[in-house]
Amino acid sequence: MCFCGQALPFEQCCNLFIAGQSKPENAEQLMRSRYSAYCVKNGEYIVSTYASEKRHEHTVEDILLFANQVEFVNLEVIHSDQDQSFQYVEFKASYIEDQQLEVLHERSRFIKEGGKWMYLDGNLFPCEGKKVSRNDPCPCLSGKKFKKCHG
């Protein structure tokens, strides 16, 4: 199963986009591939998929600093939609940082540039972190205890 939650293996799913073998056909595919890029710590892909007007605000080093201090465990896509100019994807990305479960809940906005979907920006929703104990179910939804999975 791919990091993004799709049933295909990573190599047949998001890695096709990350490796440049294919391009996402819509914003949801791009968002899922960006999530997977965080999981495999590919900062170059994440920077390259920012809209041109936002790309200068982000560096590979900053992205990797974050990606290396957390462990992403689950992605939930809530809703995708579009208007005449943009596509939107609302999602929750769960990650573990210092034995604390954090959730990034965002409604992202994507724009097409040069025939490719790019991440423009997003609105974040407040989420409270939660301490994960060793015997709690793992937040990745594997069905295992946290200590036997991501703990």
UniProtKB/TrEMBL annotation:
Matching InterPro entries: NTF2-like_dom_sf, SEC_C_motif, YchJ-like_M
Domain YchJ-like middle NTF2-like intervals: 26-122
Superkingdom, taxonomy of origin: Bacteria
Protein name, as recorded: YchJ-like middle NTF2-like domain-containing protein
Organism the protein comes from: Pseudoalteromonas luteoviolacea NCIMB 1942
